[in-house]
Amino acid sequence: MREVIIVGAGPAGMTSAIYLARAGFHPLILEKEFYGGKMNYTNKIKNYPGFDDISGVDLSEKMFGCVKGLNVEFEYANIIDSRLSENIKVLVSSNQKEYKANCVIISTGLKTRYLKCKGEDEFKGRGVSYCATCDGFFFKNLDVCVIGNGSVAIEEAIYLSSICSKVFLIIKDKFINADDNAIQMVSENDKIEVMLNTSVKEIKGNDKVESLVVKSSDKEFELNLRGVFISLGSEPEGSAFSELKSNEFGYFESNELCETNIDGVFVAGDCRNKFLRQIVTATSDGAIAASRAVKYIKMLSKKCVMSKSL
């Protein structure tokens, strides 16, 4: 039985852990993959105070270093179900282990949005990737594609152009959804070929990816390439917490204090319904959620003392 458990070790979860530990508590962080979350997929972070330029991996390591130096316990666990409405909150992992706590902070962040085309599942890890900075090196001097629109897809295409022979940027829309500077960088890059109004039909190959079937202007054709980088954005990671109120897109609803519709359950970071999702806003949420959790746990302790005295 714990006083507080944090689900998710991204910037929000790690900040919550730091604040709780400094307040004298002994929090447990549960993380299903790796600390830092989606920060690890970012090649360069330029808008986090204190760093002119830092990689996502390095910032993750620095944050986790602060966590390790405090009274924080860390455990790998994939939470797939929960019972949160009672005073004792229960979290259930994929191996059916139960974790119990008086208070829970949910900072599960976002999960990758998949393309859901034929061949995607078959070639994951064998030519299909969701992180250019993680896997780009394996496609040095080869032809690849980036599927997606927006700033992240543009960044991945530009990064891959420094490694690969050619990069097809495949966009289903009729325009590039990015700022003028990004669009100019792409248009001036001889290694990047932009394919607008183009949809993906199938990823093909034998042991590894060999080609991509696309459709443009009502015509289907194949692109010979070895790497498919899918960059379609993300969606909230919250299927394990069905009792929490969420909006139509799956983001958890909360007030400005990160309090949810269930007492003793707080949300922080990108899984929360809010205006801006950045590392700096995630850490802000983490600090607020932890501070409210401290107040909630102290309130429970006072009630316990009062009931005993009666």
Task: Characterise this structure.
The protein contains six helices and 17 strands. The chain has helices at 11-22, 56-68, 132-135, 151-161, 180-187, 279-309, and strands spanning 2-7, 28-31, 73-76, 79-83, 89-93, 98-106, 110-112, 128-129, 143-147, 166-170, 192-195, 198-205, 209-216, 219-224, 227-230, 234-236, 265-267. The relative contact order is 0.18. The longest helix is centred in the last third of the chain and has 31 residues, at 279-309. Strands 1, 2, 3, 4, 5, 6 and 17 form a seven-stranded mixed β-sheet that branches. The chain has a five-stranded parallel β-sheet with strand order 8-15-9-10-11, with helices on one face. Helix 1 (11-22) packs across helix 6 (279-309) and helix 4 (151-161) packs parallel to helix 5 (180-187). It starts with a strand and ends with a helix. The model is unreliable at 305-310 (pLDDT under 50). The protein is α/β, with parallel strands linked by helices and 310 residues long. It folds into two domains: 2-111 and 234-309, FAD/NAD(P)-binding domain (3-Layer(bba) Sandwich), CATH 3.50.50.60; 128-230, FAD/NAD(P)-binding domain (3-Layer(bba) Sandwich).
Write the layout of secondary structure elements.
Blueprint: E1 2-7, H1 11-22, E2 28-31, H2 56-68, E3 73-76, E4 79-83, E5 89-93, E6 98-106, E7 110-112, E8 128-129, H3 132-135, E9 143-147, H4 151-161, E10 166-170, H5 180-187, E11 192-195, E12 198-205, E13 209-216, E14 219-224, E15 227-230, E16 234-236, E17 265-267, H6 279-309
Parallel strand pairs: 1-2, 1-6, 2-3, 6-17, 8-15, 9-10, 9-15, 10-11
Antiparallel strand pairs: 4-5, 5-6, 7-16, 12-13, 13-14
